[in-house]
Amino acid sequence: MLVVLSPAKTLDVETPAPVAVFSEADLLDESQLLINRCNQLSMQDIASLMKVSDKIAGLNVARFSQWHRPFALNNAKQALFAFQGDVYTGLQAESLSSEALNYAQIHLRILSGLYGLLRPLDLMQAYRLEMGTKLDNLRGVNLYQFWGSLITQSLNKALQAQGDDLLINLASNEYFKAVNKKQLNGKIITPVFKDQKNGQYKVISFYAKKARGLMARYIVEQQVTGLDKLTEFDSAGYYFVESASSATELIFYRDEM
To answer: Is it true that the peptide bond before 70 is cis, omega within 30 degrees of 0?
Structure first.
């Protein structure tokens, strides 16, 4: 079972990670090409392209200009600990055991606009470059065209290395669109988390993001390998609803408190 997550806009690259072990991302040469392109952009270009304030645009100008290799613990941080935000609040990586982290390194991947695909312990430097950004580049007019089949090829390698063809999609639509489903050598299963509100069950973004992180944690802690165990997920009050699920979507409900 291979799990994919989205990254987060919120980062913490200052606080030291709880572990010193790290790895190097496989697609850093591609990242360098994107950094070279981003360093051609002015603050105004970035503000317009990313639809952010001048303050955030200025921060990203600085991040792009300061991005440099080689990565080490004094200038970068392991991805699983660097990303913050709702998904990572649910995952609570800092409290994972070394056994769970080792399992995650094999069975968990993070999609990224800048890095393509990250293992949990891959070092990264701070950035903001969402996958849906329409940044023209040497391969096309957006990041989907830039990454092409590279992310899917990396996922195929990871699927082969971890031993089966089951891919659990806990990423957002924006990020999972970077995966070429026809080229993927795996069966895609997408868990969907719905909360009860006014008597109806619906996807509420904040809760759904946190639930994705909770499920990722459950998978690496329990070393889940099959769908039977996956459907036993019951963190934070969620429960599997077989009647609402399908062969490709697993539906989890949570009742109104």
So the answer is: yes
Helix (H, G, I), strand (E, B) or coil at 8: coil
Q: What confidence tens digit (pLDDT) does each residue in 234-255 have?
A: 999 999 999 999 999 999 999 9
CA 36 vs. chain centroid, Å, equals 23
- β partners of residue 166: 187
The helix (H) or strand (E) run that includes residue 208 is: helix 205-222
Q: Which amino acid is at 198?
A: N
**Integer Cα distance of 60 and 39 in angstroms:** 10
So where are the chain's domains? 2-254
The answer to pTM > 0.90 is yes
Mapping DSSP to helix (H, G, I), strand (E, B) and coil, where does residue 66 land? helix
Residues constituting the chain: 257
Q: Are 186 and 163 in contact (CB under 8 A)?
A: no
**Rounded Cα distance, 32 and 15, in Å:** 25
